[in-house]
Amino acid sequence: MTIYGPSREEDLLEAWQHAKGIQDIYNKYEMPNFVSDNMIALNRSLSFVHDRKFFQTFQEFAADDADFAKLWRLHTYCWAGRSALSVDGDFVECGVYKGFYSSVLVRYLSFADIPRQMYLYDTFEGLPEAQSSAQERLATNPYYDWEGTHDEVVKRFADFPNVHVIKGTVPEILEQRSPARIALLHLDMNAAMAETGALDLLFDRVSDGGIVLMDDFGRYDLPGLFGALYNWMLDRGCPVLELPTGQGLVIKRARRPG
Ligand SMILES: C[S@@+](CC[C@H](N)C(=O)[O-])C[C@H]1O[C@@H](n2cnc3c(N)ncnc32)[C@H](O)[C@@H]1O
């Protein structure tokens, strides 16, 4: 169970104990519950747990508590990928780290058998100074270890000739190599400048009906990121659905007259 927020350890422990108490009560009555990733959902169907291919793939690739906490976010991502197959275009992920999300997605969709490409972009060295604020770097960089991740991620996708692992800084790298038409755009760089920079370059290439998923849209501890993405989408007349997971979801619709 992953709960974060209060900076005082005693307060965090107390919040965790309350959450655990709620979970124990629902477990006693064998009622489904999801208590993790700062989210408490009670008596929900949790249908994704019964999607065997999804759940088995998730369990195979989740390496630690932080990954396991992201079950619902992965469900959203896999839903988005599956839905995006009904429109033209390739898949793009900006912010890959060790390739956890993308590993689950491509296996869930059996992506090697699909005539599309997936482009995975990361510095594989953390948030670059030129494309992030000091606050964003402080909120993210200490929690990750990028040593050797590029080579690991390349190996991870060796069985997927249509998945391209690209080392470079977003948005600059996108000018050198990125697809002309996009069905799914996933942004997970925890940095406002980088994510809006990616949108500046790629959003026009997202197909009508294509999906933009922003992993940290609703994060209260990254207000700059929320404000930048919210306003960027508002300016284009695209309302963002804020999900309880913290993800933000946009289904792009071409503007129709009237
Ligand atoms: C939260 S992690 C991504 C997690 C990933 N989606 C997963 O499946 O676990 C954020 C990643 O974004 C990358 N990143 C941040 N800013 C970037 C930028 N401007 N260009 C490229 N990569 C960037 C970092 O190196 C880091 O690996």
- Uncertain ranges: none
Strand order of the largest sheet: 5-4-3-6-7-9-8
**Helix-strand topology string:** HEEHHHEHEHHEHEHEHEE
**Which bin fits the share of residues in helices?**
25-40%
Biggest β-sheet strands, sense, barrel: 7 strands, mixed
Average per-residue pLDDT, rounded, comes to: 95
CATH architecture of the largest domain: 3-Layer(aba) Sandwich
CATH topology of the largest domain: Rossmann fold
Report on the structure:
The chain has 258 residues and is of the alpha/beta class. The chain has two domains: 1-44, no CATH class; 51-251, Rossmann fold. 39% of the residues lie in helices and 17% in strands. It contains ten helices and nine strands. The strands form two sheets. Strands 5-4-3-6-7-9-8 form a seven-stranded mixed sheet, sandwiched between helices. Strand 6 (182-187), helix 9 (192-202) and strand 7 form a beta-alpha-beta unit. Helix 9 runs parallel beside helix 10 (223-235). The longest helix is centred in the N-terminal third of the chain and has 20 residues, at 9-28. It binds S-adenosylmethionine.
